[in-house]
Amino acid sequence: MEMVRLLLALQNEGAGGESLLGSIKIAVMPIVKVFTMCALGLLMASKYVDILPASGRKLLNGLVFTLLLPCLIFSQLGQAVTLQKMLDWWFIPMNVVLGSVTGSLIGFVVATIIRPPYPFFKFTIVQIGIGNIGNVPLVLISALCRDQSNPFGDSEKCSKDGTAYISFGQWVGAIILYTYVFNMLAPPPEGTFDIDIESVPLKSAPMGDATLEQIPLLVKEEGVSSTSQNTSKKWEIKDLLTFLYEKLKLKQILQPPIIASILAMTIGAVPFLKRLIFTPDAPLFFFTDSCIILGEAMIPCILLALGGNLIDGPGSSKLGFRTTAAIIFARLVLVPPVGMGIVMLADKLGFLPPDDKMFRFVLLLQHSMPTSVLAGAVANLRGCGRDAAAVLFWVHVFAIFSMAGWIILYLNILF
């Protein structure tokens, strides 16, 4: 009798009138689809098939981030956004910032407790604090909305709204990645992460001499003749702009997906331009339609590339079992409840659009993702790519289970 009662409870209780088993299916199926395609990418990159070697994956990654992802963002965000909506959606980028701050604080506490091997203290903070706010949420929303029984209603509207919300936060995520993460993952004073701990010197080489050598050069500039002052000022402005460009790392920040987001928001905010490009009967809609077609190829390509990239993941890493396990636990178990608290508090304070469940779902989803793949790309650029690949592999494996659990909880809270 107890078993019958339990089965009846599972059948009758759940999110939005669905049975609990139905809610579990809605939450788990998108993740199963995502990781099935990742597994196929892993198979294609394996030595048994070998049609996605490292060079092929690099090209596929480049195609995704340079063309397919920008096309998806431009077409979906541009059609959905207006100036009023951007004002209403202000909490999305704020949520990304708050998620990075709270995640990094949790990372700092965890790193302080477990004491990762030198020089991976800041690396550990980044791996816990920076989640995937772009490609994985986009893929999950796409897979969830494709199911006709999804609780958000019309599949097309569900997909368009979800993609627009996620895309609207990506530009902030890119700025965080290429400023904060880039600086946090700077190599140690020894110049490399491949350090034998026994050989680490007590102090790094002093930098004062290099600074002192530059002082006479600055003094010499004071003796510039008055006849060349105008030319000097022009060069000073040019040098200042060059310095700001390099210091702010604008080249890294202004990646194609971010440029696509800015263009979509700019055009979408101007009614005349929106009618000219994003309206189905507009004279330039052929461009948007082409972007829609190309954008649809982003999901399978990025999943195949992600699966292929993970083939080198479980290799030898200097982090050790304890640090890797702590990163996985903190990122997938400790960070989401804090994010849920942020979103619920924002809802109570009236910061979120009323009666928009997809908006809230995307905000919650941003806190529940595995470590950012782009953070792994930055780590590769800074010389700790192998260790980042190991973390990414195991975090994504365990994220199959954690994301399913969090999505079930979110659906039950929202519906």
TrEMBL record:
<dbReference type="InterPro" id="IPR004776">
    <property type="entry name" value="Mem_transp_PIN-like"/>
</dbReference>
<keyword id="KW-0927">Auxin signaling pathway</keyword>
<feature type="transmembrane region" description="Helical">
    <location>
        <begin position="391"/>
        <end position="413"/>
    </location>
</feature>
<feature type="transmembrane region" description="Helical">
    <location>
        <begin position="20"/>
        <end position="46"/>
    </location>
</feature>
<dbReference type="GO" id="GO:0005789">
    <property type="term" value="C:endoplasmic reticulum membrane"/>
</dbReference>
<protein>
    <recommendedName>
        <fullName>Auxin efflux carrier family protein</fullName>
    </recommendedName>
</protein>
<feature type="transmembrane region" description="Helical">
    <location>
        <begin position="164"/>
        <end position="182"/>
    </location>
</feature>
<feature type="transmembrane region" description="Helical">
    <location>
        <begin position="89"/>
        <end position="111"/>
    </location>
</feature>
<keyword id="KW-1133">Transmembrane helix</keyword>
<feature type="transmembrane region" description="Helical">
    <location>
        <begin position="358"/>
        <end position="379"/>
    </location>
</feature>
<feature type="transmembrane region" description="Helical">
    <location>
        <begin position="123"/>
        <end position="144"/>
    </location>
</feature>
<feature type="transmembrane region" description="Helical">
    <location>
        <begin position="285"/>
        <end position="311"/>
    </location>
</feature>
<dbReference type="Pfam" id="PF03547">
    <property type="entry name" value="Mem_trans"/>
</dbReference>
<feature type="transmembrane region" description="Helical">
    <location>
        <begin position="323"/>
        <end position="346"/>
    </location>
</feature>
<feature type="transmembrane region" description="Helical">
    <location>
        <begin position="58"/>
        <end position="77"/>
    </location>
</feature>
<keyword id="KW-0472">Membrane</keyword>
<keyword id="KW-0812">Transmembrane</keyword>
<feature type="transmembrane region" description="Helical">
    <location>
        <begin position="253"/>
        <end position="273"/>
    </location>
</feature>
<dbReference type="InterPro" id="IPR039305">
    <property type="entry name" value="PILS2/6"/>
</dbReference>
<dbReference type="GO" id="GO:0009734">
    <property type="term" value="P:auxin-activated signaling pathway"/>
</dbReference>
<dbReference type="GO" id="GO:0080162">
    <property type="term" value="P:endoplasmic reticulum to cytosol auxin transport"/>
</dbReference>
